[in-house]
Amino acid sequence: MRALEERIRREGLILSDTVLKVDSFLNHQVDTALALEIGQEFKRIFAGKPITKVLTIEASGIQFAMATGIALDVPFIYAKKKKAVTLAEQVYTAPVHSFTRQETYQVSISQKYLGPDDNVLIVDDFLATGAALVGLVNIVRESGATLSGVGCVIEKGFQEGRGLLEEMGVEVHSLARITKMSPGEIHFAEADSPAAIKEKV
Amino acid sequence: MRALEERIRREGLILSDTVLKVDSFLNHQVDTALALEIGQEFKRIFAGKPITKVLTIEASGIQFAMATGIALDVPFIYAKKKKAVTLAEQVYTAPVHSFTRQETYQVSISQKYLGPDDNVLIVDDFLATGAALVGLVNIVRESGATLSGVGCVIEKGFQEGRGLLEEMGVEVHSLARITKMSPGEIHFAEADSPAAIKEKV
Fold first, then answer.
1. A187: number of Cβ within 10 Å
2. Partner of A15 for a Cys bridge, out of A3, A19, A22, B29, CB 3.0 to 4.6 A?
3. What was the ipTM of the complex prediction?
4. By the CB < 8 Å criterion, does B63 face chain A?
5. Contacts of residue B74 in chain A, CB cutoff 8 Å?
6. Is the pTM above the cut of 0.80?
């Protein structure tokens, strides 16, 4: 997605070879118009799939699940990061290890909102280690719902997340796929390039 | 907001005199069409205020800040509940005590995204004790921005939140204002009734 890549080049802060900050427009302050365009782009990419629900994880996935839900005219669900006090009923859970925070937490979804009649598109802001997304895929499978795929706004293509998801047989699409970065320099893969990433020249 | 009150009557689960679950349509599974209507309603209520940014707190405020940002065509910011690893720059912070979890956490916002040129509308899903909202109001004041008001989707009118905010001179509007509830029974205040709550008959 060209507009997104240009915005990342202009406003993204590359703090190291692995840390990219996009909190001026994606995940702290949010450009609502850009978020809506991101939703439309996921609708275009997953066109033809009979998606009934968008699924994400709190907190930074919510604005993109909302935008995608608006584009597809379906509800979205956000998984909670720990069992909340008012979540008394039966829940699907999966453990997720956060490499950033070096801790393992539980993600959970009420069983009332996901079942065999659902066709799910998982959406998140970043695809890096894939830990949270693998947890969500396992939850979708446990629920008996059909998984149409995973859509990520930004992919760190040099980390293992895509490989883990593709090994599980999941279709993965990212709107901006970074092949390499370091302070002052960022490279994106060609749009819709196959798993073997081809860099833009 | 009549459609919201009816939805709460139909789908809300009243677990006790103080706990209302609305996670089938507002804060776990989200009805995106209803969320967009909520954004339009806040736009209507705060019409004429030169709002430049919507502010909320992760996670359950995000969908309503997004909807309000869409309606007003402005960005939104969500405060983080603890200082994140990638938030290296200067932040505004405020301590918030959670009565549900019996713990105090820090909310923080990057100083880059809020300043004297901003006119802020704070939006959240629930107004109950008001703890988180008081923290956000203090942050807006510290930043030098103008505060246009606070918009909440559901207000537990029998708790102290509104009183605390009004004592601070803040204009508060809620879309569904509960005066009393218990399992099987719920009462809403008349729309736009003054601080002394008048119940519907």
1. 16
2. A19
3. 0.92
4. yes
5. 32
6. yes
